[in-house]
Design brief:
Elements lengths: L2 H24 L10 H10 L11 H36 L6 H17 L20
Length: 136
């Protein structure tokens, strides 16, 4: 899954949690029926399926999992971290004219812009191997 897509999914989850918090603040007795399926769906879409050989040792299993899952975990942590930093910067700057949802919406638009420009990485890396021959 592209980093911009992971970021948009994380923003969706954070937006939903913000809405649930607002609902609970308005009516503490209300049961919002928090649904863990949004997080389960995100994990299912971002984490790869892994096949472990039956005769694999504990060390081999750890290496297989780290190799296969490491990149996806990195994407998820990066997306949540970016969202947190964006929210923290607005909070720390004292800007009271922006809500949490405003910040998340702006971040989602930037993620969409990254996606529409063909960049899958937040740092603008096009994914091209720097050692590759431009003529090949």
């Amino acid at each position: 899954m592209e980093q911009s897509e992971v970021l948009k999914r994380v923003i969706g989850i954070l937006t939903q949690m913000t809405d649930w918090r607002r609902i609970l603040e308005e009516d503490e007795e209300r049961d919002i029926g928090s649904d863990p399926s949004v997080i389960t769906a995100l994990l299912s879409e971002t984490l790869p399926r892994i096949r472990i050989p039956e005769d694999a040792t504990h060390e081999e299993i750890a290496n297989i999992v780290a190799e296969k899952v490491g990149g996806a975990i990195h994407q998820l942590v990066g997306a949540f971290t970016l969202a947190f930093v964006e929210l923290a910067q607005v909070h720390d700057s004292g800007r009271d004219n922006m809500t949490t949802n405003d910040v998340l919406r702006e971040l989602a638009l930037r993620a969409e812009h990254l996606n529409s420009n063909g960049n899958s990485d937040a740092d603008g890396d096009s994914g091209r191997d720097s050692d590759s021959d431009p003529d090949s």
